[in-house]
Amino acid sequence: MEQLNAIIKIITDNKDSNILLEISLDTDLRVDLDFDSLDLAELTVRCEHAFGVDIFDDGIVTTIKEIMEKISG
Amino acid sequence: MDKLFWIDDDIIKSYQQLIKDTNNINLFKNIIYENKSYVLYVKIVHSLINDYPITLLDCDFSNTELTNLGFLTLDLQKSKIIHPKILHSVDELFVTISNLNNWKITLLTSGTTGVPKKITHTFSSITKSVKISKSHNADIWGFAYNPTHMAGIQVFFQAFLNMNTIVNIFNKPLRNMHLLVENYLISHISATPTFYRLFVQKEVTFVSIKQVSCGGEKLEKNLKIRLKKCFPYAKIRNIYASTEAGSLFASKGEYFKIPQKLSQYIKIIDSEILIHKDILGVSNDIPLQNGWYYSGDIIEIIEDDPEIIFKFLHRKNEMINVGGYKVNPNEVEEEIRKIENVNSVRVYGLKNSVLGNILCADIVVNDITEKEIRKILSSKLQPFKSPRFFNFVKKIEITRTGKIKR
Hints:
heterodimer; A: mainly alpha; 51% helix; B: Rossmann fold; five-stranded antiparallel beta sheet
């Protein structure tokens, strides 16, 4: 979770996003973090780099919880 | 009741309102650089009613990009005062635009040399694939393209010329997109596979959709299966289109058929599709060889008798397809190299399950962070042209001819 938080922070920082949000398992990538398709694509690359898993491989994930499930396999 | 033309969140406009808004324009500009979609359409319709040529620019072009394209800020502000034709009815609108002499539309497409090409279409060439009939009267379009690009313009004309309602679902949060489709009973969507990859959710179906069109990128088998589940009553079409030629072929699966009426304008040489100039837009920027444009699309012929059936393999040139937008890595590299403390850079596409490809860069720097680089690029390049992953390296490999290895 900590590593995933760090990845999300990189993406939101680079967006200069004003969203100051405590990430929880229910955080929705598009609704709460305002991620667009480019941000989601970046998230997949960074997650694949860090965890060796393509989190969008078999369809879209929408929440942090779903990413955690993909990562833990 | 007035037929609705455009729905975008709280902006709801009828065809009658559209006419009223065009009647109120007294200044016309040949260059349209507009970030509000409805206003963009008012300006396009105004140009049609008053029969003058227009050029559409992406509203997110930076000043640097505009200058590179040869547009000065002054050009964008140039306007002329006219006495516009005042229309009173929607019928009058369609009669007026059925007789155009001067109207042309110029679009910009990514060029292989770093400078986008300007392609000009007449009304008949831009609408050649539009189907107008009573059976399309009740279509309701979910709009899911950039409105200033060829695909967006084609959807606009298909809907507008049939007096259909267009609901903007582009760049909305997923839940809102789903609600818009359900609430407005959207029947037609045309979008890139990237859009559908994000739109389609497990166990969510939309029964109002009758037709789903995909274009701009390869439609992979897995996505097609997901589309069929999500839109159980829809025909799924794959469209081959380009800014140079507009829509040319449609397919039901991954196989495209060259229609009989186009057969004399299409040739295949060394697996590459060639398109004859007679069905292209007009441009000094389209390179022709004996009247033929080499599209750069490499295909495999499946059948060649009586009609050619083919499937796409890949692009011949270096353009990287990021979610349906073609990016020239040379243009991006050039912009990155201008940044102080950047010594060398190589931009490339990495396969990505969301966008098809994502832009990445290997970069050699002295003392600058990724965040700083991305901040500078955000003011110089459109968002999809900016690499999203930087790999800081000590050296970039080059080929024997001194080119960057891709």
